[in-house]
Design a protein that fits this description.
heterodimer; A: about 450 residues; alpha/beta; Amidase signature (AS) enzymes; 11-stranded mixed sheet; 14 helices; about 15% strand; globular; B: mainly alpha; Histone, subunit A; two-stranded antiparallel sheet; flat
Chain lengths: ~450, ~90
């Protein structure tokens, strides 16, 4: 048995039966990291000493009869979630040396179940991007083809899971940042309903859109992690005070009679033929299993990217105002306070961050607010209504996760708009606040994974 | 877009080269975004966020807070128990 290939469920079973030990499992993962990480570069920080100490501790606890759903199991965490005492960079120079003085709620919940933090994964700086090329610490490579991107912004987490350098991982998703990399790397990525998972300790990008979710080797692990990380948190005023169901209770049930909505707007010109065929084949498979396809319409789909890039950049420009070189983060000295701010931010942020701060500041500025920010929020209402109407006819909506398989590195870096359009199928889901999952559904002729998005 | 004015509002110093590149790129992004004007949104309520919740308060009870040394541990410049910033009054 190659231990690094285990899922959470398999590792839990083997650990509980005493077939393997946490130290063996952790060592196997580090052996795997030593052999493939130099090519993939999924991690910003590898927490080797920390993880091995935790593994030894877990070994003792299991011997003493302790139980924890993740006791002895190593997960990776996207490097935009605060981990007490372990560097959290957001893949930005401005946070290069930031050591959080507190633990995020999600990682605390994982800790409560005995998990081992194996490392912090690479992302597009501040989670702004779709390719994990915009990292201050270098790009991450797609394990299926090192010349292509792993998707983004949770590209490090998706690549680490796909290449078995962790048992599972957490990502965050503002416009597709969990689902699109999961699709590109051939793993399962879930963006929960807005408010389901606490964001206390998640470095904020666009607060009305951000959600944390699992990236896993299969759907069972996704449900298991959702059971652990979900729930109301008084430390996050946007977390929903709603009871958490047992997500694993839905596993293995039949889908006879389930109405699967297929939006005509998602099978459009520009979508890769192999992606279209693969997704249609998956739909036929669902139909063969008893699901009933229903044609639906999401008429405002064509406006989602435009609305998103106003809303997300506006919120980002406000959230990122905190990086002022005073309380934490790097500082560049200037002639006076204003000059210090201007230089600190000029030196600390990468190009994509600056571009988005400028766009967001512009759309919020006096004289432009109604034309851009308010207009985008009104269009958001229309997009949300599209989904409400669609769910009157369908139980779930099925679409491609991304219009193409993984693209080549460097292909879109000079054209931000082209890059933004890569998120066309995932963005509406964040605007509407509904949950979406990407699951593998096939391969392109170039042997790159294709993802199926299911929206609930 | 008056990029210099916006950059000052954002407290972001841009080089001449950045100003030139961003002007061009943001010009085409805004041109794309202008397609929102194809939609008549008169009378439509804006959505700031999707949850029907507002004004979430916590109980007014004292809880432990971050100890001073931890709050200061990431400060780029500090003096004793204070964050240090450039002088702002003469």
């Amino acid at each position: 048995m190659e231990l690094h290939t285990l899922s959470i469920h398999e590792a839990r079973t083997a650990l509980d039966k005493g077939e393997i030990s946490p130290v063996e499992l952790t060592n196997a993962l580090f052996k795997r990291i030593d052999s493939v990480e130099p090519k993939i570069k999924a991690y910003v920080t590898i927490a080797r000493e920390h993880a091995l100490a935790r593994a030894t501790d877990a070994e003792g606890r299991i011997k003493n009869g302790d139980r924890g759903l993740l006791l002895g199991i190593s997960l990776a965490v996207k490097d935009n979630m605060c981990t007490d005492g372990i560097r959290t960079t957001c893949s930005s120079k401005i946070l290069e040396n930031f050591i959080p003085p507190y633990e995020s709620t999600v990682t605390q919940k994982l800790k409560d179940q005995g998990f081992i933090l194996i490392g912090k994964t690479n992302l597009d700086e501040f989670a702004m991007g779709s390719s994990t090329e915009n990292s201050a610490f270098g790009r991450t490579h797609n394990p299926w083809d090192l010349e292509t991107v792993p998707g983004g912004s949770s590209g490090g987490s998706a690549a680490a899971v796909a290449s078995d350098m962790c048992i599972a991982a957490l990502g965050s998703d503002t416009g597709g940042s969990i689902r699109q990399p999961a699709s590109f790397c051939g793993v399962v990525g879930l963006k929960p309903t807005y408010g389901r998972v606490s964001r206390y300790g998640l470095v904020a990008f666009a607060s009305s859109l951000d959600q944390i979710g699992p990236i896993t080797k299969n759907v069972r692990d996704s449900a298991m992690l959702m059971n652990i990380i979900s729930g109301h948190d008084p430390d996050d005023s946007t977390s929903a005070p709603i009871a958490v169901p047992d997500f694993t209770s839905g596993l293995g049930r039949d889908i006879k009679g389930m109405r699967i909505g297929i939006p005509s707007e998602y099978f459009i010109e520009g979508i890769d033929k192999e992606v279209e065929e693969s997704v249609k084949q998956a739909i036929r498979k669902l139909e063969a299993l008893g699901a009933v396809p229903v044609e639906i319409s999401l008429p405002h789909t064509g406006y989602a990217v435009a609305a998103y890039y106003i809303i997300a950049t506006s919120e980002a420009s406000s959230n990122l105002a905190r990086y002022d070189g005073v309380k934490y983060g790097a500082r560049t000295e200037g002639n006076d306070l204003l000059d210090m701010y201007m230089k600190t931010r000029a030196k600390g942020f990468g190009a994509e961050i600056k571009r988005r701060i400028i766009l967001g500041t512009y759309s919020l500025s006096s004289g432009y607010y109604d034309a851009y920010y308010k207009k985008a929020q009104q269009v958001r209402t229309l997009i949300k209504q599209d989904f409400e109407n669609a769910f009157k006819k369908a139980d779930v909506i099925v679409t491609p996760t991304s219009p193409t398989p993984a693209f080549r590195s460097g292909e879109k870096t000079d054209d931000p708009l082209h890059m933004y359009l890569a998120d066309i199928f995932t963005i509406s889901v964040n605007l509407a606040g509904v949950p979406g999952i990407s699951i593998p559904c096939g391969f392109s002729s170039g042997n790159l994974p294709i993802g199926l998005q299911i929206i609930g | 877009m008056e990029i210099e004015r916006v950059a000052l509002l954002a407290r972001l110093e841009l080089s001449m080269e950045e100003q030139e590149i961003f002007s061009r790129q943001l010009g085409s992004i805004i041109e794309y975004i202008d397609k929102l004007n194809e939609l008549n949104t008169a009378g439509i309520e804006p959505t700031a966020h999707v949850l029907p919740m507002k004004n979430i308060f916590r109980e007014d009870k004292i809880r432990p807070s971050l100890p001073r040394d931890k709050a200061l541990q990431n400060a780029p410049v500090k003096t004793d128990d204070f964050y240090r910033v450039p002088k702002i009054i003469e």
